[in-house]
Amino acid sequence: MRTGIFKLGDLETERGGVIRDAELSWQTHGTLSPNRDNVIVYPCSYGATHETQEWLIGPDGVLDPERWFIVIPDMFSNGLSSSASTDPDFPSLVTMADNVHAQYRLLTEEFGIDRLAAAYGFSMGAGQAYHWAALYPGFVERAIVVCGSARTSLHNRVFLSGLLRILEPLPSTAATGGSRPSRSPPSAPSRTCTPAGD
């Protein structure tokens, strides 16, 4: 097992903005074959890091390091790669495609890989596996998607909308264009309930 930080330089994002001095944290398991044809990229799911995804890797398991060279790149803002929590100028929106493009550079520039045996992902990692297949179809032999979708379902949109409604009332700072909450939450408004009919 190896870990490292891949330095991407200033990385322009798909929806505008730049991640300054972007860094992509990573971990590998297994041995890269002489033909470099046993590579599986295993992108992190939401809130996960390479440490929390190790449970699926083991001899005779789904991701067997005796057979495969497994690369786990950490997503931007997961706390190990470049993150909004440590960079006040971090772009307000970083997409799955931004992550996959950075992962592609990691695989090709750091490891000299020119083909993936598979992109394997769970949940948000599954979304990245779909992006791998769509963005680099000649590079990826197969996408293994677990508990993910190529398009966000109506059910998931409603769920995410509920989370957004919780965050929207937070005060924002003018310096960030209203995209980040201030350090202190607002005090709860006092409300008086009047029974119906009174």
The percentage helix is 10-25%
Order of helices and strands: EEEEHEHEH
Mean pLDDT: 87
Low-confidence runs (pLDDT<50, min 5 residues)?
187-198
Please give the oligomerization state of what you see.
Answer: single chain
Structure characterization notes:
This protein has 198 residues and is an alpha/beta fold. 21% of the residues lie in helices and 20% in strands. It is built from 3 helices and 6 strands; from the N terminus they run ββββαβαβα. A 6-stranded mixed sheet has the order 1-2-4-3-5-6, covered by helices on one side. Helix 2 links the parallel strand 5 and strand 6. Helix 1 crosses helix 2. It is globular, with a radius of gyration of 20 Å. The relative contact order is 0.14. The C terminus is likely disordered.
